[in-house]
């Protein structure tokens, strides 16, 4: 389930796996937050070293005139932030890397 923010109103949506046509292949590492669609970073809601929980919103991405809340796929500490507000991202681009508790 993904959350979209449209005109400050949150909506939840699901996309059936078969509808994706292989779009997300190779983008499954839970320690990496990657862009699933091209867009513009509106806000980064975390900082390096910050502890995050699975499902926590880490950034807002504008795509097709909609604001999309991008969530952490796992719990851990923010290890890298590779984007800033205003940056344009492409599908599959690494935006944030999380270090899990079990890794150095």
Question: What does this entry look like structurally?
Answer:
The chain is mainly beta. It has a single domain (2-99), classed as OB fold (Dihydrolipoamide Acetyltransferase, E2P), CATH 2.40.50. Helices cover 0% and strands 46% of the residues. The protein has no helices and 10 strands. It has strands at 2-6, 9-13, 32-34, 39-44, 51-52, 57-63, 66-71, 76-81, 88-89, 94-99. A 6-stranded antiparallel beta sheet has the order 2-1-7-6-4-9, with no helix packed on it. Strands 3-10-8-5 form a 4-stranded antiparallel beta sheet, with no helix packed on it. The radius of gyration is 13 Å and the shape is globular. The mean pLDDT is 84.
Topology:
Layout: E1 2-6, E2 9-13, E3 32-34, E4 39-44, E5 51-52, E6 57-63, E7 66-71, E8 76-81, E9 88-89, E10 94-99
Antiparallel strand pairs: 1-2, 1-7, 3-10, 4-6, 4-9, 5-8, 6-7, 8-10
Quick recap:
The chain is mostly beta strands. 0% of the residues lie in helices and 46% in strands. The protein has a single domain, classed as OB fold (Dihydrolipoamide Acetyltransferase, E2P) (Beta Barrel).
């Amino acid at each position: 389930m993904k959350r979209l923010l449209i005109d400050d109103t949150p909506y939840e949506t699901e996309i059936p796996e078969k509808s994706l046509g292989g779009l997300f292949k190779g983008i499954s590492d839970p320690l990496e937050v990657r862009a699933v669609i091209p867009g513009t970073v509106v806000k980064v809601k975390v900082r390096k070293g910050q502890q995050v929980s699975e499902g926590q919103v880490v950034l807002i991405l504008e795509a097709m005139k909609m604001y999309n809340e991008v969530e952490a796929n796992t719990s851990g500490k923010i290890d890298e932030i590779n984007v800033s507000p205003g940056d344009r991202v492409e599908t599959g681009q690494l935006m944030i890397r999380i270090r899990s508790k079990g890794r150095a």
